[in-house]
Amino acid sequence: MRSPSADQHTGHSHTHSRDGQTHTHNGNVPQTVAFENVTVTYGPIHALSDVSFSVDSGSLSAVVGPNGGGKSTLLKAVVGLVKPDEGHVTVHGRPSAEMRKQTGFVPQLEQVDWNFPVTVWDVALMGLTPSRGLFRAHSRANRDAAAEALATVGLTDLRNRSIGELSGGQRRRALLARAIASKPSILLLDEPMNGLDPTAQHSFLDIIDNLRDGGATVMMSTHDLTCVSARASDVALINQRLIAYGPPEEVFLESVLADVFGHQLVVHATGNAYALHHHDHNPAWPGRT
User: Fold this and answer.
1) Strands 186-190 and 103-106
2) pTM score, whole prediction
3) Are strands 186-190 and 217-222 parallel, antiparallel or unpaired?
4) Phi/psi zone of residue 111: left (φ > 0), alpha (ψ -120 to 50 degrees), beta?
5) Which residue ranges form the domains of the chain, and what is each CATH number?
6) Taking each helix axis from N to C terminus, what angle separates 198-213 and 168-180, rounded to the nearest 10 degrees?
7) If phi over 0 gives left and psi between -120 and 50 gives alpha, with beta otherwise, what is residue 55?
8) What is the pLDDT of residue 267?
9) What angle do CA 63, 66, 70 make, to 5 degrees?
10) Which long-range contacts (CB under 8 A, 24 or more apart) does 252-258 make?
11) What is the mean predicted confidence (pLDDT) over 201-217?
């Protein structure tokens, strides 16, 4: 699944530093996604300000921050749904807008209208519509790819089930099947842990680990620090600006997390931190990202 152009950034090491936190990338590991001085505004509001860091190929990079801190905007800039006002995003060394076929995007559950009359099978096929074109029947290859995606996420037995009948974990896996049906090299997951119980969270992340074993690079936005600590290769702490970037054990410090979350952060005496916030999004139909 990895693009052959992913090795353009090999052969050197470089260090990112924000607010005293540093992280040096291994020069032997290709850089798949790179943000260079990315600024995004919505009218007078700065969603992102001068954000720069890069993501190693094959890694799981978590984007952690409060609601409204720019996490979703960052992911949408990778898939080309948001255009930076300043700076740029590259995927395998090329402008992200030219590399949409290399990226699979899983939106937040709250952004989907689960009353839309489609089956799990229909959702998986939606990930292959660009390769089919409008008003054309899906090829055998596309149907096989959709079936493989459903098998990967463990939903083969539910392929004829209406999406409105699925549990929260099953809904997340259906959206993941849509995202991976075209075999992208990069997966972008927007708040995949939100609303899932611990069992569903771990089952979902086990699937993600298997996809990484197959060559996928994953970026996952979240405010839940518990799974990130155990699973993520690196963490970008974002609150409009990049607060810190590096391995979880280096950036999940109380002083740094307080800078990111402020009053939204609860820190337990053991040193484990959990960020709390709520969502209020308008729904969209399942084919929309």
Assistant:
1) parallel
2) 0.79
3) parallel
4) alpha
5) 4-118+185-275 (3.40.50.300)
6) 20
7) beta
8) 52
9) 60
10) 252/225, 256/19, 256/21, 257/225
11) 93
